[in-house]
UniProtKB/TrEMBL annotation:
Cellular-component GO terms for this entry: cytoplasm; endomembrane system; membrane
SMART domains reported for this sequence: DAGKc (SM00046)
Single biological process term from Gene Ontology: negative regulation of apoptotic process
Lineage summary: Eukaryota, Metazoa, Chordata, Craniata, Vertebrata
Name of the molecule in the record: sphingosine kinase
Positions of transmembrane segments: none
Source organism: Motacilla alba (White wagtail)
Entry's EC annotation: 2.7.1.91
Amino acid sequence: GDSYGVLPRPCHALVLLNPQSGSGRALDDFQAVVQPMLAEADIATTVFVTERPHHAHEKVRDEDLSQWDTLVVMSGDGLLFEVVNGLMERPDWKEAMKKPLCILPGGSGNALAASINYYAGYDHVAKKKLLTNCTFILCKGLHTQMDLVSLSTASGKRFFSFLGFGWGFISDVDIDSEKYRWLGSARFTLGTLQCLAKLRVYQGRLSYLPIAAEQGSSPAPRDPPAP
């Protein structure tokens, strides 16, 4: 079974918050919903409000994190992506990645928060109810390990993901709908319709490692046969 750690009490959390995430209500929702619950749970907060892209990335990459017991991300999945990759760029990344991370849904896409809500045994909910559930999970203080995915590109860049990597149509929907962020989750519907209207052609190459014929052999990657 899973092994769990427990946050100390009292607890000091660094909250990284994007005020533009979702429909732009992340800061208001944090003050109205999250802060009172954390105060009751004896969790003190230092709130860091991001002002530009990659601001959170730079903060966790360069900051002395020893003063906080946990890092809390109040935004969508994108800000947590920044935080994870910022931590992995630190010279002490092995120790830094032991710092418990928490996601509180405040964005347009809250896939990880919804997944945690599900695996915690709660009913499928969204918006304020999902935020309340995830804050309650934080208040309980239980944390466990989570896998990351590593991707290295041909240009030499390396990225880490906690959900998955997208390429082609799905990525275009996410990027092109950024200007409709004020619509909340509806931005993805509008972005999908727009991308369908100007449907692009994507050309890519897939390579894979087939199962070795003999144990211990390591065949070179090969391209799949043409359809």
